[in-house]
Amino acid sequence: MTFKEQIQEGIPSTLPNPKPFDPAINHAPKRKEILSEEEKKLALKNALRYFEPEHHKTLISEFKEELDTYGRIYMYRLRPDYEMKARPISEYPGNSEQAKAIMLMIQNNLDYAVAQHPHELITYGGNGAVFQNWAQYRLTMKYLSEMTDEQTLTMYSGHPMGLFPSHKEAPRVVVTNGMVIPNYSKPDDWEKMNALGVSQYGQMTAGSYMYIGPQGIVHGTTITVLNGFRKIKKSPKGSLFVTSGLGGMSGAQPKAGNIAGCVTVCAEVNPKITKIRHEQGWINEIVEDITLLVARVRKALENKEAVSIAYLGNIVDVWERFDQESLHIDLGSDQTSLHNPWAGGYYPIGFTFEQSNEMMANNPEKFKEEVQKTLRRHAEAINKHTANGTYFFDYGNAFLLEASRAGADIMAENGIDFKYPSYVQDIMGPMCFDYGFGPFRWVCASGKPEDLAKTDKIACDVLEEMMKNSPEEIQQQMADNIQWIKGAQENKLVVGSQARILYADAEGRIKIAEAFNKAIEKGEIGHVILGRDHHDVSGTDSPYRETSNIYDGSRFTADMAIHNVIGDSFRGATWVSIHNGGGVGWGEVINGGFGMVLDGSKEASKRLESMLFWDVNNGISRRSWARNEGAIFAIKRAMETQPLLKVTIPNIVDETLF
Question: What GO terms are given for molecular function (predicted)?
Answer without folding.
Answer: urocanate hydratase activity
